[in-house]
Write a structure and sequence with these properties.
Pfam families: Pyr_redox_2. It contains nine helices and 23 strands. By secondary structure, the chain is α/β, with parallel strands linked by helices. Strand 13 and strand 14 form a beta hairpin. It starts with a strand and ends in a 27-residue tail after the last helix.
């Protein structure tokens, strides 16, 4: 009987994990199933581009993983039973021996009324396409308001402003837009916002979203034909509904090898995992976290199943990348524990670096068997569920 590995979610974290496992483990010994709600790999870091009206290259998952031994299932995960070791897929039950949970995140409304009813977002492909369709209806001179001054808000605002110069684009933030960046990066950001004609509302507390704009904590209004919510993300509630140990935000608590601290046959990667990085703080929700988490989880799983030494490493950061449209950007150098430094690249150079990083990440997903030499090993005779004794390579 083959050892059944089920990977839930085919974003950067899930797809990378599945591809790397396929290169580490012998396909005679394992059955790797990748479950995803969308039949294509979605470049989430480019959703602001899709929303603004740009077309992205399609990457069907079945084509991506053809010939790798990874079975792709297009289905929505509705529940996980970690005691019975099964996953519910809309009425169908899928059993596993090892589970990799990588279902990612979605927007968090922060308790603000009207977000679900009146605001758009760029947290996924369907949402980005809805925003794209709505933007095509906005009259010249109409206002598009981005709520949130973080990475997503900045990229969405600048992309929309660049592609739609006929629109009035504004950003509303509770604090300072890009306030965590170094002084040099903030100066460049201000120049880019001014160049694109983006109106900035800072130190503004949004208390309600309405059909024609937002209401602020001071009782004022910011009028807009379209409101885009980028003020925070949260994980899907599926993990919190199980007996897995989760953080107060619903993320699965994992050890240094991305393994659940409460259920040793479950691993979590990407936004869905609460893992400590360099400096002891939690890794932030980002592609920069998802990829190394996926690589580490796959290597740990493969090592445990084949009876080899489990790798030990601490995940840290090097840069934060921000696109400001297609021809401008910021590459902010950070310490391994994600603190900004004085080193910054800006302008076209930064835009090219950001594009190279994004393209490389997508290429690695689309070519799962080409990123590293294949060394598929047989499983060790450990007596683990679903594992049969075989000769090790």
């Amino acid at each position: 009987m083959k050892h059944r590995i089920v990977v839930l979610g085919a974003g950067y974290a899930g797809a990378n994990t599945a591809g790397r496992l396929a290169k580490r483990l012998h396909r005679d010994d394992v059955e790797i199933t990748l479950v995803n709600g969308d039949p294509e790999f979605v470049e989430r870091v480019r959703m602001h581009q899709l929303a603004s009206g740009q077309d992205l290259r399609p990457r069907p998952l079945r084509d991506v993983f053809a010939g790798t031994g990874v079975q792709v299932r297009t289905a929505r995960v509705t529940a996980v039973d970690v005691e019975g070791k099964t996953v519910e897929l809309g009425g169908e039950t899928l059993a596993y021996d090892t589970l990799v949970y990588a279902l990612g995140s979605t927007i968090a409304d922060a308790g603000v009324p009207g977000v679900a009813e009146h605001a758009h977002n760029v947290a996924g492909k369907e949402a980005a396409l809805r925003l794209r369709a709505r933007l095509s209806e906005v009259r010249p001179g109409g206002t598009v308001l981005i709520v949130g001054g973080g990475l997503t808000g900045i990229e969405a605002a600048t992309e929309i402003a660049e592609v739609h110069p006929e629109m009035e684009v504004a950003v509303a933030a509770r604090g300072r837009v890009g306030g965590w960046l170094s002084d040099k990066a903030q100066r460049h950001l201000r120049g880019a916002l001014d160049r694109l004609g983006i109106t900035v509302h800072e130190q503004v507390d949004i208390t309600r979203i309405e059909a024609n704009g937002v209401v602020t904590g001071a009782g004022g209004e910011i009028r807009a034909e379209v409101t885009v919510w980028t003020a925070g993300f949260t994980v899907h509630p599926i993990a919190a509904a199980t007996t897995l140990k989760v953080s107060d935000t619903g993320r699965i608590v994992v050890d240094a090898g991305m393994r659940s601290v409460s259920h040793p046959d479950v691993y979590a990667v990407g936004d869905a995992a609460y893992a400590e990085g360099a400096g002891g703080g939690p890794l932030r929700m980002s592609c920069a976290s998802a990829n190394p988490m996926a690589w580490l989880a796959a290597d740990v799983i493969a090592a445990r199943l084949t009876g080899r030494k489990v790798p030990e490493t601490t995940i840290g950061y090097s840069v934060q990348c921000i696109s400001l449209g297609r021809r401008d950007g910021i590459i902010q150098r950070v310490t391994p524990d994600d603190q900004v430094t004085s080193t910054v690249f800006t302008g076209r150079t930064a835009a090219r670096i950001k594009e190279l990083i994004c393209a490389s990440a997508a290429w690695s997903i689309s070519h799962p068997t080409m990123m590293m030499p294949s060394r598929r090993r047989h499983l060790a005779a450990t007596g683990a569920s679903g594992t049969r004794p075989l000769t090790r390579s």
